[in-house]
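dumping this here before i forget
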Amino acid sequence: MPGCRVIQMAALCAVAFGLTGYAAFGGWAVITVDDFPETVAAAQPVNLSFVVRQHGLTLLPNLSPIVTATRGKLEVAGKVQGKAAGHYAAQLVLPEAGKWSITIHSGFGASKVKLPIVHAVTAGEKRPATAPSERGRRLFVAKGCVTCHVHRAVSAIDNNSLGVGPELTPKRYEAAYLRRFLTDPSIARTPGRQEMPALGLSDAELTALVAFINGNHSVAAQR
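structure:
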């Protein structure tokens, strides 16, 4: 029967690309945080803006994302508002100093991202600057790279990659080329392959991601 053949072909495609369930039928999205902070001020409003794209490409408007932050038994929810199509902003107040875990549920299928630990600090408290490679590892999650790519230096427990892009653990690239590619992925467009979006990365973000992707890493860690 024609209907059965369609279902069988869809199942075969799902197996071929390593996708299951909702992911096999377009129900996945990539969440990209615009400006992921290293530290925030405790007990003060924190604005966290982000973009949601189906398959990493198509902006998804009219969603109802949920943003939560947890520290031990404490949990706070952010107030989320839609901005331009596919763009959203959450406001959170982390009530006490310490390490906080922030999770963004996109509101599209089961797509979500658990961000690297954010440190809430009291007035006058300073933390040492993060090394570029470590900053890049954190951005690998916050910018949504983790959704499409596997990298063994990034925790696979909290954010499972769909593996629609190549595994990046063993990859090393000429730094100038990698910066150009991350700025404009169309320079390496391959027919029939998933295309990356241009994320509008800042110069500092490019430096950090290049340092991470081209670096040597032994363990995955959340700090």
